Write a sequence for this structure.
């Protein structure tokens, strides 16, 4: 058993903390803990730094005498990259066998989905990627029986976009092979010709080796149901530690899967997160079932004392958060408006920023966020009500679709669940090539477009010199992308050569838009850059970025404006007692979900917190709000 002492902690303090700072007693308790425990951390508390320090200490004890390893799981490659970067070269043993560092998805893909798929189908998976899967299912839909296609078009009233979206969101139920939507709701109550045809369509794509991310979990569950005891034994023998970061973002089926794989009596399991920030599990329910007596980190490095006090009533699980006494206190403000004045809310927020003297530093970040991004057909308030040119599709990298060559070759947009950097770059470059073939209508045969594997095979068999040139280029392009260098012109030259030599295509005029356009330019043309710019005389303009609450999760802002929006009811009106400082139980899943969204939004700022509220939402509550610490600013 590893033991961590004060001397170990002192060494990592010098590496992970600013000069003169020390880990608090709460964090020391977590660093020393060698039991399976939950670690509940308030916003901006230095949770990840504490985890990194612990990993750094444990790394000194590798390799373990029993040759067991450490498993570290999180939800995004950005988080994995941050862990690797901050641990540095000195901790390289942590990233070698028998240890595993990666997303939950990549863990499932590597250890469960891939071997089980190979066992069932006798071949390797071609792709686990939503974008590739979505393209494939829309293409293959045109091959099914005409009567089925006609029936589905009638069902969706000839709205192709709605039809394709339903196809792309079609999933297998985890308990059987029936079809359901992304929320788990059955698509058909009984088997009928349409359900059978769509089931055959989806299974046919799976047999080709093309999976969406949730298909990977579906296969993993089948593997667990078949060999659960053996897998539990294997993983409990392979790993001594399992650390999960941002546990609140773990879905129900991810939680169940990990619980079945790892025995907390044999593996030390420590789950880090904040239950108050769980806003992803179908928008309503948290999947993280806390174990008894979690360890806590209650001191926030981000929020001021006044902001910590204001947001405490919104907590679904009391955290005991203490604000940062070193951060200047600015009274949080409620900007009150009549609906006809709603478009003046952002200019008012900009004025408040300037009045507080926060616009002078170019490093300061200001954002305005709301829960609901879609335009409400009933005229209820959503983000576009405040900022009419808001475009939901361009808010946040996770929602951005790769459409142009610049997108495929931009490191901001490359998003893979594989932690192997070289493979990440290769896949994006190959996807760009496949996109070119798709745009030109070039197929492998009458029914199927090319995949990475089939394109490379054709290239190797039919033009070996070009294949070798591509391999050399691919290696160089990956290195250049890693260094953030531009490879666009080189890629276009090679792509045009490939089209000419391999497919006898010399006219590439159809690719002009793909080669030259960018998503940023398209957004600018559509007025959808999602940035409100406030011009100041004789000074640099002030930019306020507009996004959803989910889109800014985990971020720190200098100033944050939380828009009141409508979701079954209005945010501020529904939660007015909590704005007044009352700590009471949240009633029902909808009020809990609304409180969590408000909590996530209002815990982003280090200095300035503002809330935009309709006059009707706070009428009669003004005195209580003032007593709670709010300053009320009436737009007139």
């Amino acid at each position: 058993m590893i033991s961590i002492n004060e001397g170990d902690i002192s060494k990592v303090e010098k590496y992970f903390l600013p000069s003169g700072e020390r880990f608090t007693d709460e964090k020391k308790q977590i660093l020393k803990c060698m039991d399976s425990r939950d670690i509940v951390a308030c916003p901006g508390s230095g949770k990840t730094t504490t985890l990194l320090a612990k990993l750094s200490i444990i790394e000194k004890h590798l390799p373990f005498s029993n040759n067991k390893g450490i498993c570290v799981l999180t939800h995004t490659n950005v988080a994995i990259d941050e862990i690797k970067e901050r641990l540095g070269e000195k901790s390289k043993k942590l990233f070698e066998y028998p240890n595993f560092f990666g997303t939950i998805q990549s863990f499932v893909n590597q250890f469960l989905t891939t071997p089980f798929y190979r066992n069932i189908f006798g071949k390797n998976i071609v792709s686990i990627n939503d974008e590739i899967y979505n393209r494939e299912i829309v293409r293959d839909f045109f091959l099914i029986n005409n009567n089925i296609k006609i029936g589905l078009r009638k069902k969706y009233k000839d709205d192709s976009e709605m039809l394709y979206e339903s196809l792309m969101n079609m999933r297998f139920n985890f308990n059987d092979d029936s079809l359901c939507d992304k929320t788990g709701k059955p698509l058909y109550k009984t088997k009928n010709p349409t359900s059978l045809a769509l089931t055959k369509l989806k299974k046919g794509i799976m047999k080709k080796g093309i999976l969406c991310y949730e298909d990977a979990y579906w296969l993993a569950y089948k593997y667990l149901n078949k060999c659960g005891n053996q897998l539990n034994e294997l993983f409990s023998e392979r790993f001594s530690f399992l650390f999960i970061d941002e546990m609140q973002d773990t879905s129900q089926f991810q939680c169940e899967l990990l619980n079945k794989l790892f025995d907390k009596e044999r593996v030390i399991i420590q789950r880090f997160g904040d239950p108050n920030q769980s806003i992803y599990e179908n928008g309503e329910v948290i999947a993280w079932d806390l174990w008894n007596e979690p360890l806590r980190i209650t001191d926030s490095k981000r929020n001021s004392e006044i902001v910590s006090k204001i947001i405490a009533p919104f907590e679904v699980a009391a955290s005991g958060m203490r604000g940062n006494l070193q951060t200047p206190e600015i009274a949080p403000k409620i900007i009150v408006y009549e609906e006809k004045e709603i478009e003046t809310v952002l200019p008012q927020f900009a004025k408040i920023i300037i009045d507080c003297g926060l616009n002078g530093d170019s490093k300061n970040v200001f954002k305005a966020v709301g829960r609901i991004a879609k335009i409400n057909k009933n005229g209820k308030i959503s983000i576009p009500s405040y900022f009419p040119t808001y475009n939901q599709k361009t808010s946040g990298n996770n929602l951005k679709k790769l459409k142009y060559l610049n997108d495929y070759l931009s490191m901001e947009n490359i998003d893979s669940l594989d932690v192997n950097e070289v493979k990440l770059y290769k896949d994006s470059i190959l996807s760009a090539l496949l996109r070119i073939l798709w745009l030109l209508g070039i197929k492998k045969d009458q029914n199927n477009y090319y995949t990475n594997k089939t394109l490379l095979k054709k290239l190797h068999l039919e033009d070996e010199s070009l294949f070798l040139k591509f391999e050399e280029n691919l290696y160089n392009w990956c290195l250049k992308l890693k260094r953030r260098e531009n490879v666009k012109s080189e890629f276009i030259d090679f792509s045009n050569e490939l089209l000419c030599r391999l497919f006898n295509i010399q006219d590439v005029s159809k690719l002009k838009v793909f080669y030259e356009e960018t998503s940023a330019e398209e957004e600018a043309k559509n007025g959808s850059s999602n940035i409100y710019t406030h011009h100041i005389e004789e000074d640099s303009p002030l930019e306020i970025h507009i996004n959803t609450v989910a889109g800014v999760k985990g971020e720190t802002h200098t100033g944050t404006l939380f828009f009141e929006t409508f979701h079954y009811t209005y945010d501020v009106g529904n939660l007015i007692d909590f704005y007044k400082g009352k700590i009471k139980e949240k009633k029902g899943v909808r009020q809990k979900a609304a409180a969590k969204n408000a909590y996530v939004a209002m815990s982003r700022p280090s200095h300035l917190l503002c809330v935009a509220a309709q006059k009707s939402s706070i009428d009669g509550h003004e005195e209580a709000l003032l007593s709670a610490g709010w300053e009320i600013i009436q737009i007139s």
Notes: Residues 394-400, 415-421, 524-528 have pLDDT under 50 and may be disordered.
